[in-house]
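Sequence, structure tokens passed on for absentees:
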Amino acid sequence: MRAGAVFPQLEIGTDAGAIRAFAEAVEELGLAHVLAYDHVLGADVARDDPRMARWPASHYTHRDAFHEPLVLFAYLAGVTRALVLEWCGGEEEDLALDDLYRADEAFLTSTTRDVQPIRAVDGTVLPAAPGPVTAKAMEAFAARSAELMDP
């Protein structure tokens, strides 16, 4: 079994640096996933509704900032990408989709999945998955993550 962390929706606020620090701490601790709760609307506890009497006073309401999970996870994936570039070297650049189809290898970064090889793009199989560059990035990321893990 691998442990994870619950994203502190209300406690963390809206500071991007605090969210990045949370993501880095999750990775440094070697946790396997982040759980972020979603909602459509917060409860308006001032409504004249008997069901609101059961609503915990400490729970979020319609006035609280709440991080939308898809945007949050896109940001967290970017944090992981930055760590891969920092720890493994390399450069980031914009490429056309055709460049990806012709690539010898490619990989994705993810806050919860680290470095993962891409085997195919739209049915076009890449020649190496993982290839030598991806394998090196996977090894370097795993080693650095283990090195920074707080037992």
The domain at 68-148 is CATH 3.20.10.10 (D-amino Acid Aminotransferase; Chain A, domain 2). Strands lie at 5-6, 34-35, 107-110, 114-117, 120-121, 124-125.
